[in-house]
Amino acid sequence: MPRANVSVSRAFTKTELLGMTTQTAHVLHVIAHGQGDRIQTGNGKSNTTSADFTLLGQKGGILPQIVVSTACTFYNEHWKAALQACGVKILIASPQEVTPANLVAFDMSFYAALLSSTRRGKSTLARAEESFAMAQVYYESLWPIGTPHAKFQIAHL
């Protein structure tokens, strides 16, 4: 039995992305082009903003408790406040530009730890925290000293 309920969904419009509140997953993973308080949806044809999520939360929209994002610059005060308004407890993201190599390496590390059959008896939030710590050690070991790469961070909202 997996240690977390992760659902993979693709959203091409703002409406589809905001509709992710109806899922019963523990983790929402946002992969998008991001800049500040915006992420692109629809293959760059539209934007969704942190304000859209804040409004969703004010209307009672609830997201999974854990949001992981490999969108560039997603770890910022705009997104933290917006996701908190939607009931998110943990945000894992980077305040920097994220390359394809960065996102693949971090995602592999994090999900390998999260979905393994270890840490039984712990809450999903506790497993996410521990998985992030484990993923960070491995992810950082991949880059030779001085090699630029995105730094991922965890925020408790």
User: Which residue ranges are poorly predicted, with pLDDT under 50 across at least 5 consecutive positions?
Assistant: none
Mean pLDDT, all residues: 88
Question: Beta fraction of the residues?
Answer: 15-25%
**What is the general shape?**
globular
Instruction: Tell me how many strands there are.
Output: 7
The arrangement of helices and strands along the chain is HEEEEHEHEHHE
Give me the number of helical elements.
Answer: 5
The share of residues in helices is 25-40%
**Please, how many domains?**
1
Cα gyration radius (Å)? 15 Å
Termini separation comes to 28 Å
Q: What structural category characterises the helix and strand content?
A: alpha/beta
Order of strands across the widest beta sheet? 1-5-6-7
Report what the structure shows.
A hairpin with a 4-residue loop joins strand 3 and strand 4 (46-49). The strands form two sheets. A four-stranded mixed β-sheet has the order 1-5-6-7, covered by helices on one side. Strands 2-3-4 form a three-stranded antiparallel β-sheet. The chain is globular, with a radius of gyration of 15 Å. The protein has one domain. The mean pLDDT is 88. Helices cover 36% and strands 17% of the residues. It has 157 residues and is an alpha/beta fold.
